[in-house]
Amino acid sequence: MTTKVIKNGIIVTPVHQYKGDILIEDEIVKAIGKKGEFAAVKAEFIDADGLYVIPGAVDEHTHMSMPSPDTYSMPWETETIAAAVGGTTTIVDFAIQEKGKTLTEAIDTWKKNANNNTAIDYSLHIAITDLNEDIIAEIPSAVEQGVTTFKLFMAYKDDKMVDDATLYRVLKQSKEVGGLVMVHAENGDVISILQDEYVKSGKTEPFYHAITRPIEIEAEATRRAIALANITDAPIFIVHVSGEEPAEEIRKARMNGQAVFGETCPHYLFLDDSYLQLPGFEGAKYVCSPPLREKTHQQKLWNAIADGTLQTIGTDHCSFNYKEQKHRGIDDFSKIPNGGNGIENWLQMLYSYGVKKENMTIEKLVELTATNPAKFMGLFPKKGTISVGSDADIVLFDPNKKHTIKAETQLQGSDYNFYEGFTIEGSAQHVFLRGEHIVKDDKYIGHLGQGQFIESKPYGAAYDSIRTNDKGVV
Ligand SMILES: [Zn+2]
């Protein structure tokens, strides 16, 4: 690989921004210097004048080629190219344990799907769906294989849902080896009854997806997961927090000193439940779980980000076609595949509507979308930062570039876009993956297979306070 110098840009970290030049060699950031410092180096020079130089985003929450009843979400091939062009250089995807199979089999299946088919680097979580003694015993081996985060679904009864005993046991076992438990917090038992009641009474339209998953369903499960984590003294990470009440549960537990952390997603910040009421069957495009909430929750989530209740943003990218796939639920909302897209546009949306409209700083954007995800998922400092020795995953971001999001011009594979019609001001202009120029003037120039599996390390950021307490230090 040729030596490269990114010059004249504004380098952004979670704590500051400064003008500097970056020397890239052998896939990593070799040195960071003052303007012109590397002028004499024999290198390819990339001029970042007027651009922000930010670490490639780390999307900790994606579902590529994920089995959903009778179908699969969009594959690595399309979605990781879309991710790259949007400024994401690492994803952490959820490998799902099939019933009766081992964790290692799930990891192998996911690696087989990803290897040679991914444009960007990836790491894995594993979703445990079928626990027994052998699986408990396998948790340390998953950690040794570089998979240190364990996802448990408290929703999707008769599919991926686990019971409280499973949640308790996995929390306990994973803590022994520095693993982090992540939960999808919704009460799946009650959802399943509500869905039956509504469908039987002829209420089958997409909007009833949200009605049968009220926010109390999410708040209760969040509270329960936090309580079980407290009993086991394990850290816990609540994914896709959708509104005020579940965020409040996290806030309360954190104020009590518990190691509880949370993520929200761009769609909860920018979309609301009115999208589920679009005419005809269009609302199906916006069926995801937890569901989109009333608009008033958006400000509560911004507040929860600002006050540190929530530490990260992930896309929960799990994309299906409207035609054919979403249409499986035309007569019954409970059969609509759950999920939407966002990986191509999330940084643009967060910059345009977060930094420019909500007074969020670009430093905070970097923290939420790169540094903190890498820290919690055991990938830091290899990923999530521009520091000497880190992978040269770097985005040159043009803060003024305008466009309107349209499904017809997107790279994502699906036939619609969550953010259709939103106007954008700010986009990735160049993207480097371990020093390779993979997006040039907002066009993808890399090739599939460039992405590598990245092992995550145990005892990520969720353990920082726990270790401190163990030492008796306040
Ligand atoms: Zn998800």
Tags for this model:
23% strand, binds zinc ion, 474 residues, 8-stranded parallel sheet, 13 helices
Please characterize this protein's 3D structure:
With 474 residues, the chain is α/β, with parallel strands linked by helices. The chain has helices spanning 76-86, 103-114, 133-144, 164-176, 188-200, 207-211, 215-232, 244-255, 266-270, 296-306, 346-355, 362-376, 464-470, and strands at 4-12, 17-25, 28-33, 44-47, 52-55, 57-62, 67-68, 71-72, 88-96, 121-127, 149-153, 180-184, 236-238, 260-264, 312-313, 394-404, 423-433, 436-440, 443-444. The strands form three sheets. Strands 1, 2, 3, 4, 5, 16, 17, 18 and 19 form a nine-stranded mixed sheet that branches. Strands 6-9-10-11-12-13-14-15 form an eight-stranded parallel sheet. A hairpin with a 2-residue loop joins strand 2 and strand 3. The model has no long low-confidence stretch (mean pLDDT 96). Zinc ion is lined by residues 61, 63, 316, 318.
Strand and helix layout:
Elements: E1 4-12, E2 17-25, E3 28-33, E4 44-47, E5 52-55, E6 57-62, E7 67-68, E8 71-72, H1 76-86, E9 88-96, H2 103-114, E10 121-127, H3 133-144, E11 149-153, H4 164-176, E12 180-184, H5 188-200, H6 207-211, H7 215-232, E13 236-238, H8 244-255, E14 260-264, H9 266-270, H10 296-306, E15 312-313, H11 346-355, H12 362-376, E16 394-404, E17 423-433, E18 436-440, E19 443-444, H13 464-470
Parallel strand pairs: 1-4, 1-5, 6-9, 9-10, 10-11, 11-12, 12-13, 13-14, 14-15
Antiparallel strand pairs: 1-2, 2-3, 5-16, 7-8, 16-17, 17-18, 18-19
Bound molecules: zinc ion.
